[in-house]
Structure formats: structure tokens, C-alpha cells
Amino acid sequence: MLLLLGLTLTIVAYAGTLRFEFVYDDLPQIVSNPAVQSWRRVPGYFLHHVWSHIYPTWPGNYYRPLFLLWLRVNHAIFGLRPLGWHFSTVAAHLGVTAMVFWLARRITHDDVAAAVAATIFGLHPAHVETVAWVSGVSEPLLALLFIPAFVFYMNARERPQERVKWIALSLLMFALALLSKETAIVLPGLIFGYEWLGHGLPDNDAGESANAQPREASYSEPWAAKLERSVLATLPYAALGLVYLAVRQLVLKAFAHPEAHVPLSAVMLTWPSLLWLYARHLAALGRMSLFYDEGYVYHPGLVNFWLPLAAVAAIAACVVAWSRRSKPAALASLWLLLPLLPPLASIGIFGNGEIVHDRYLYLPSIGVAILVALAIERLPARGRLLQLPATEVAATLVLAIALGAATIVGSVHWANNLLLYYDGVQQAPRNVLARIHLGTEMLSRHDITSAMRLYYQAHDLAPDSWSANFVLGFINFGTGRFTEAEKWLRAGIRITPENPNQYLYLGLTLMNEGRFDEAAASIQHGADLWPQGPGFHYGLGLVAQKKGELRGAVSEFQKELAIDPTSGAWRNIAQIEAQMRAAQQR
After folding, report:
1. Are 272 and 305 within 8 A, CB to CB?
2. Residues 424-467: pLDDT tens digits?
3. pTM of the model as a whole
4. Span 417-585: which CATH code?
5. What residue segments make up the domains of the chain, in order of their start?
């Protein structure tokens, strides 16, 4: 009954998202991504990074072929109608919510606690980014595979006569989870922890029963034997994880490609403030947004390091103390901690403004939901309601209403890009990316004045930001301010010389200034970086046409049409051919 109520409330909480538009990365990742619009492109999902269709010359950090396959299936079914995409994303989250009930029941051995955990998980406002945003579905997709991988291992341990079958199914789910999102790499750690906790703690929370045995009485296995058993159980998963890392290395040419150069000391000094923010959000405290002002900590102070460290340490001490008395609490704590390790370890590869996102809390919130359910289960029993303990039902309903209301309110700004980016600027006034995205949205609405103001504000916040310099170059080019455009584009090239598009716009800028040879050299450099990139041969054709080299221009326009048949280069060819015929007649 409680599970059905939780699922129903979750549907109600996210029903409004079905009217939402494509936002943020949905536009380049779905709407204008040819890779997810043709079945012929599916083999390439396993050979390239997620953003290779936009940044083919840039090294990628995301190898997620099954996520791309999910996008392809959705495109085949729904086309570019946002309603269908949002429906499938909400459905995926509901599926994970049901799986959380399955997992929690196996961990707690209690249907009521499992239903409470699933209800809390389904309605938690930290999931708004994941569920209200179509491209956020990578997290539910991961969870739909990751949870069975763990539960199937539990089956293998509890049913020795069927161990081979369940281990095989578990490893299959693990492999698929790895191909969905790299966070799945923590499963061997969960397996190790589950085996380590297999002996030595009571199965139920010590506070539930007066007959619960103390920890010392239930522990008899030697430490070395327990370690050996845990390591042996983990080996097949570790081996599969190494195979995945080797494939990832082969495809991406490295385990990761840093987008920023951040010393390890700064990364470690930043962890307490990030963990404190995540702890508040897991407790459903504070306003959640796509953007945050959290940045790297280079010099530890009271507010940015010591206070967050003390708060996180206090929380950790409480969780450890509880986990020492209860195996369900210990397992839930592992589900909370381990999935947080990859995003924490990888923050050094991202620039300021991108080091924290609520979507990273999707898997960890499973552990929190189970811990809260265990805490509710410890409440004193006071009567019956719906044939269940009244105090547990009442506490769950109060939590569900509060979490559901926060989710409904928090999802509103994901309705379209204007609301999303405006909210981002309000919530994170020092975040460069929030202002750049809002500026771009204003530009799409033909409000050039507002766009320029936001872009200049972004540059003032971070003069070394490639994005801020590039967009200033682009918008000045588009408004005919070619001297300014050249300045900003050259600044972007100095910061990040690998992006080919900036050479195209610099070349077009120089062409408009009559500097044809420099223009051709710049555009050709961009074409060399991205041989199959659209626009480069068109730009070279324009330069040749301006110089009066008509046959060379036709050749470049033909090359452009071979790359992009939808290009308007055919008009230029027709114009030149008419011009050449007129010259012959004279």
C-alpha cells in the first residue's frame, strides 16, 4: 500500500514535466545530433565519446554507448516531440523507484521499511535535475542496471546451488551499467563491502528488537579469512572493471582529459565544501539549481574548509556509529558513500562552475532513503493505520508531502531554457556558465543588448574562460564589429587552441576586413583540425569568391555540399556559374 502511494505521489510530482521543452544539453545532444537520428550510427556509439558529433577533434570524457542507444530508441519512437521524451524519463525514474523497494526489502528484510525508502527516493527533490531534464536520464538508466547487478549478487550468495547463474546475470548487468555511465565502476567496492559485512553484524537494526545480538557475539570469522573471502568474491567484478577501463582508454585515448589544470591539493581542499553541499541537498535543505557558485579551494579558511570539514566529520561519525551496530545501516551507508567517490575524484578535470551537480546524488540518495526508512522504523509504535504502524505511516506521509512539494516547486524552472538559465544566474551569481547560457538564450530571442551585457559580465567574472571569450567573438562577428570580434576570437584561441570553429569565425572576420590570405589560412587550419566539419569549405569558398578566384570557389562549395548536402553552397555555385556565363557572353 505504501509503495503504491509512493509511486502515485511520484507520478503527481513529475506530471508537470510532461509539458516541458527540451532544455540545456538536450538541444545539441538530441535535437541537432545526427548520431541519435539514424540506426546506421549505432555502431559508432561504441567507438566514440558522447560529444564526438559536436567536438570530433576534442578528447572526450564520456564513454556511454548505452545512453546514446537510449536516445536513439526514444528518437525512433517519439521523434522530436518533447512530451514523449519526458514521459520515458519519468517512467525510467518510476522503474528505479520500484527497484529501490526491491533492494531495500533485501537489505532491511522489511516490506514497510522498503516502501518508505522507495517513497523517499521517488519524491526526493535532489532528483529534479535528473528527471525534469531529458538528458539527465543517464542516471536512472545506470540505476536500472546497477541495482540488479547488486541484487543478483545477493541472490548468488544466498542461493549457492544457483550461484553460477546469478553471478553470470550480475556480471552482465554490471557490464551494461558500465556502458551506461562510468559511475558503475564502484560496484566491486559494494560487493567487497557486502561480503565484508556478511559476518559480524546483526541482520536487523539493533534498535528494532530487544533480542538483537551484540556485535561481538555474532562475529567469529578470523579477519584474514574474511578479507580473503571478500577479495575472492570481488575478483570477477574487478576483472570486468579493468576490461571496461581498457576499452575506455582505447576509445578516449586516456582515462580522462582535464578541462582545467587544478593541483591535487586544491581538489582535496575542495572536497569538504562539496560534501557539505551534497549533505544539505541529500537532507532536502537549500534551493537546488543547475548552477552553483562552488569553486576550487586553494587557500583553506574557516568558511570554505574548516566548518564544512567539521560538519562532514560529525555526520560521518554518526553514520559510522550506527553502521557498527546494524548491517542494513552499514550497507545503506556504502550505497551512500561509494557512488559519490567518482564525482569527487573527477572534479579536477572540470573548470569552475561545473564541479558540482545534483544529478551525482541519484545513486547515493538510495542509501539515504534506506537510512531514513530505518530511522522511521525505530519510532515508537502508536496504534495502527492502514493496517500498518501509525507512527511510521504518519512520518512517511509528512515526509512525502514535504518532499513532493519541494520537487514540484523545484522542477518549475526546468520548463524552458529562459527559466532555467535565469534561475541559474539568480542562484549562482558568480557562475560564468550560467550567464553565458542566459546570454545565448537572450540572443536566440533577438535581445542582443541583454546578451552582450551578460557575456561581458561573464568575462569580467572569469577573463580566462574560453567560453566567455568565444561567445564575445561570435556575437561581435554577428553584429558586424569585426575589430572587436578578432580580439575576442584570438583570445579564445590562446586559451583553447583545439576548437576548430573559432578559426572559422576568425577567418570570416578577417575576410570581412579584406584580409583574404589571413582569412583563408585561419579557415584552412580549422578544416585541418576537423576535416569533415561543416562550414569550413563554405568559408574557404567565400574567401575565394571575394578574391575573384571563381573556379576555386566552386570547388570549395562542392566539397562543402559533399560534407553537408543541406548547405546553401549550391546557391553560391549557381551565382558563380551565372556570373561566368554572363562574362563569356560579353
Report:
1. yes
2. 999 999 999 999 999 999 999 999 899 999 999 999 998 988 88
3. 0.89
4. 1.25.40.10
5. 2-203+214-260+362-414, 417-585
